[in-house]
């Protein structure tokens, strides 16, 4: 795709950023829609984050994604006078999508939870968060976004378990709402009666230890998903599928979380398609 002097610019700020799939993802949509624009990887060290954002505004960028380790710093920038945050970004306390307006103000959003819920809606048509309790494994940044989105979507009861129980307690207190913490070694029995099981830990990812989980109490009606997407079919998803559960892999969360930013910067609402999935998988 050729660019003109009017090209719309966006990118992803991270440190490091070389592993990010976002340039390939947005690049696919830019080509698909023949948009005069570009989406760049932007490696920025933590101490330069605020000045880098300022520079992008001066360079005429439309906005940017923000990834590790800048999501909290982006949130703090958006708390400054004249800038804004979406309700979900305020609830979660981090920002992964920045939109710059014509006055140089920042508008911050967090779209990981949106991506998570949209992935379930697309992968398990008819799924509703309100159906029953959700068991969440892990209490890191990913769990924070997932739980906030599930509560917002009407999940009546979140059961949270994490290796370090104090981290789960802190997250539950911070987010508020119907969240119950159980011990990590109770994760098997805690499956009884749930409607949704989510792994938000890094366990099961290529190169990480496996997730050991007794699924004998898991209802067959429960939907099972993993935010790990390398491998696409984790041992958890394979075991749940064998038991007859509907499973949704984690790649779609990455793809769907990118939609709001793309639409804001480039003016087209992009779609998550099989062709996009294949494109991202083939590049790994
Ligand atoms: P992210 O922001 O991607 O969620 P994170 O904040 O590093 O990443 O969280 C990783 C999650 O995986 C945590 O819930 C972590 O548990 P702890 O809070 O106890 O560290 C979990 N995790 C990582 N390795 C684990 C292991 N070997 N056993 C159990 N849980 C593990």
From TrEMBL:
It comes from the Bacteria. NADP(+) binds at residues 138-142, 227, 250. Shikimate binds at residues 20-22, 67, 96, 112, 229, 257. The keyword Amino-acid biosynthesis applies. Keywords: Amino-acid biosynthesis, Aromatic amino acid biosynthesis, NADP, Oxidoreductase. One of its GO terms (cellular component) is cytosol. Its EC number is 1.1.1.25. The active site is at 71 (proton acceptor). Pfam families: Shikimate_DH, Shikimate_dh_N. Residues 134-182 form the Quinate/shikimate 5-dehydrogenase/glutamyl-tRNA reductase domain. One of its GO terms (biological process) is chorismate biosynthetic process. It catalyses: shikimate + NADP(+) = 3-dehydroshikimate + NADPH + H(+). Residues 12-98 form the Shikimate dehydrogenase substrate binding N-terminal domain. Gene3D superfamilies: Leucine Dehydrogenase, chain A, domain 1, NAD(P)-binding Rossmann-like Domain. SUPFAM superfamilies: Aminoacid dehydrogenase-like, N-terminal domain, NAD(P)-binding Rossmann-fold domains. CDD domains: NAD_bind_Shikimate_DH (cd01065). The keyword Amino-acid biosynthesis applies. GO terms for molecular function: NADP binding; shikimate 3-dehydrogenase (NADP+) activity. It is an enzyme of class 1 (oxidoreductase). Pathway: Metabolic intermediate biosynthesis; chorismate biosynthesis; chorismate from D-erythrose 4-phosphate and phosphoenolpyruvate: step 4/7. Homodimer. HAMAP family: Shikimate_DH_AroE. Involved in the biosynthesis of the chorismate, which leads to the biosynthesis of aromatic amino acids. Catalyzes the reversible NADPH linked reduction of 3-dehydroshikimate (DHSA) to yield shikimate (SA). Belongs to the shikimate dehydrogenase family. This is Shikimate dehydrogenase (NADP(+)). The gene is aroE.
